[in-house]
Amino acid sequence: MRLDINGRSLAARAYPDMPLLWLLRDVLNLTGTKYGCGVGACGACTVRVDGAAVRACMTPVSGVIGKRIQTIEGLGSPDKPHALQRAWIAEQVPQCGYCQSGMLMAAAALLDKKPRPTDADIDAAITNLCRCGTYQRIRLAIRRAASGPAVPVGPAGALQARS
C-alpha cells in the first residue's frame, strides 16, 4: 500500500488492521511518535490525519489510506522549526520530553482549526497526558505560537501585550 506521510508517498507492507503507530515506528522507522498507553488515553502517539489530531495507537492503517498523515518528523526541521517548536523551546516546556511529540501534534491541529485559541479551547483540545505536569508551560507555548514569534515573555512566563 502507499501512504501520504509528511508530504511524501511511501510504500509500506502492513495488515489493514495494524495500528498506524506500529506502521510508523516499526515499519517506516519514524520513531518520533511514541507509544504510551496503547489505549488512546495518553496521547503520546498523536499524529495528524488530514489535519486532525488522532491517536495512532488506536487508528488502523486501513483508516488512513488516501489521507494526509503528518508525524512530528514532518512538523518542522532543525533549520526551520515550526512556530510551536520554537515556542516550546522559548517556554522551556519539555522536562522528560516523552509526551512532547504528541502534544505538539495536538497543538498544531488546534492552531490550524483555531489560530487564536482561548485557554478553554486549549484545555479542550489538548487532552494528552504529561507525567511531568508542564501543562501551564504548554498553554503558554501554544499562546506564544498563536501570537507570532515576536511576542515577548515576562520574567514570570506571562505573555506580555504587544505595543
Summarize the topology:
Layout: E1 2-5, E2 8-11, H1 20-27, E3 46-49, E4 52-55, E5 68-70, H2 83-90, H3 100-113, H4 119-125, H5 135-147
Parallel strand pairs: 1-5
Antiparallel strand pairs: 1-2, 3-4, 3-5
Helix pairs in contact: 2-5
Structural class: alpha+beta
- The total strand number stands at 5
* Helicity level: 25-40%
> What Rg do the Cα atoms give?
16 Å
Total separate domains? 2
Number of helices, where a helix is a run of at least 4 consecutive DSSP H or I residues: 5
Strand order of the largest sheet: 2-1-5-3-4
Shape descriptor: globular
Cα distance spanning the termini = 52 Å
- What is the CATH homology-level superfamily of the largest domain? Beta-grasp domain
Task: Give the CATH class of the largest domain.
Answer: Alpha Beta
SSE arrangement, N to C: EEHEEEHHHH
| CATH architecture name of the largest domain | Roll
Low-confidence stretches: 150-163
Could you describe the 3D structure shown?
The protein is an alpha+beta fold and 163 residues long. The protein has 5 helices and 5 strands, in the order ββαβββαααα. The protein folds into 2 domains: 73 residues, Roll (Ubiquitin-like (UB roll)); 65 residues, Orthogonal Bundle (DNA polymerase, domain 1). Strands 2-1-5-3-4 form a 5-stranded mixed beta sheet, covered by helices on one side. α2 packs across α5. It is globular, with a radius of gyration of 16 Å.
